[in-house]
Amino acid sequence: MKLVSYKGWKQNVRLTNGAIEVIVTLGVGPRIIRCGFVGGPNIFGEFKSQLGKCGERKWMIRGGHRLWVAPEHKPKTYELDNSAVEMVKEIPGGIRVVQRKGPLTGIRKSMDITLAPRGARVRVIHTLTNDGKKTVPCSAWALSVMPRNGVAIIPVPKLVPHDERCTPNQNWSLWSYTDMTDPRLKLGTKFLLVRQDPRRGPFKLGMAQRQGWVAYLKGDILFIKNFARKAGAVHPDYDVNFEVYTDENILELETLGPLVNLKPGQSVQHEERWLLTKVGGRRRVV
Q1: What residue numbers bound the domain in which 21 lies?
Q2: Residues 6+ apart with CB under 8 A from 187
Q3: Structure pTM?
């Protein structure tokens, strides 16, 4: 664990195995503000005007990767994370970062962030702990802000002939502003693509994602996010465990854990595993 400055914040933890690096803010958060190959670009999007600052009276997106409480609800989901984290602790292969208890929900958020000994793999365990006095219906919600001009790659189930299956094997959720004729959306037999376009506003779509991964391609760097859907569990937003949101500034890859009634003193965890890889040559995904 090494403390470094980053774009105006003086206290940040840098984790590296020589191949990749992760930078975690301590002045605000918990938040992973940077992840990328050493010497390469940040795979996450950033809001430059919000970097290096703290203490704002309204919630700031800033960029990077964060942990939220689902289902989305104002103001509870938007509890401020504009102050210093309560604790940072070394753990095998990485760190644990813990936020102060939320004044609205009574929930304390934490992330265990570890790097593989070699290669470009990161493991993030997101934890919600109820330190309040009331049971809170909630789901751990992990959101990665991706930069402009990339494309989300989302696998869909394999086609099954009609005479082999008569029941549905997918469920999607659409928001009030979701336009299925949006040119950023492309449907294929193997993948669904959503492109970030700086000229267009909000679009969102949710899925019950059972393939266990989604990805984002920007230039020659492919970011792959692996996660599991718990069989038999109910998830937020009409039972979806993955959501993609995009607007003129960003695209977000969002994964969600099961809905639980989190009693005082209880915790719930949601795990993601990340992989960075470089790709080249001609690419065709649909």
Answers
A1: 2-278
A2: none
A3: 0.95
